[in-house]
Design goal:
The structure is a single chain. By secondary structure, the chain is of the alpha/beta class. Helix content is about 40%, strand content about 25%. The protein has helices at about 35-45, 65-80, 95-105, 110-115, 115-140, and strands at about 5-10, 15-20, 25-35, 50-55, 90. Strands 3-2-1-4-5 form a 5-stranded mixed β-sheet, sandwiched between helices. Helix 3 (about 95-105) packs across helix 5 (about 115-140). The longest helix has 22 residues, at about 115-140.
Length: about 150
C-alpha cells in the first residue's frame, strides 16, 4: 500500500503531512511555498510511492465557500491537471488551525516555536490526514466520499 499525502493549502504556504504505508498513522512532513507545491509533490513522488492526496477545503460555519475556498479550489484544479492518475480528495478543514495550536500547546511545544506559522501548517495538515484516515478506517478501508465534510 502506498502512503497518503495531505495538504493544508494557504495563500502563501502549504502544510504537508504523510501517512505510513499502511494508512494508519499521520506524520507532519514539511511546509512549502504554495507556488512551489507542484514541484515539491513531483520530488516527493520520486522518493516514495504516494497512492492518494487529500486536501483540506476551507468553508465557513454555514458550510459556505470563503475566499480561502476559492483559492483552494484553484490549487485543487491545478493538482488534478498536473497529476491526473493520482486520486485527490478533499475534506472539511474547519477548526484545524485552532486544533493544531491546542495540540502544540498540549504537546509542550515552546511558545516561540508555536508562533512559527509553518509549524501550525504542518500540524494542521497532519490533523486533516488523521481525520481522513479515521473516516477511511470506519468505512472499511474505502475512500471516504469525495469532498467529505463530516471529519474534523
Amino acid at each position: 500500500m502506498a502512503a497518503i499525502l495531505a495538504l493544508d493549502v494557504g495563500g502563501k504556504r502549504t502544510g504537508m503531512a504523510i501517512s505510513d504505508d499502511s494508512g494508519i498513522f499521520a506524520f507532519p512532513l514539511q511546509t512549502v511555498e504554495t507556488r512551489l507545491l507542484t514541484a515539491e509533490i513531483r520530488k516527493l513522488l520520486l522518493e516514495r510511492p504516494i497512492g492518494e492526496i487529500v486536501m483540506g477545503m476551507p468553508v465557513n460555519l454555514k458550510n459556505e465557500s470563503t475566499d480561502g475556498t476559492r483559492m483552494a479550489e484553484s490549487v485543487l484544479k491545478s493538482l488534478r491537471k498536473d497529476f491526473p492518475l493520482l486520486p485527490i480528495s478533499t475534506i472539511d478543514e474547519r477548526f484545524t488551525s485552532r486544533m493544531a495550536m491546542q495540540a502544540m500547546v498540549m504537546g509542550g511545544m515552546k511558545k516561540s516555536d508555536r508562533r512559527q506559522k509553518e509549524n501550525t501548517d504542518k500540524v494542521s495538515a497532519t490533523l486533516i490526514l488523521q481525520s481522513y484516515l479515521e473516516q477511511k478506517s470506519r468505512s472499511g478501508g474505502q475512500t471516504p466520499p469525495k469532498d467529505s465534510t463530516n471529519g474534523i
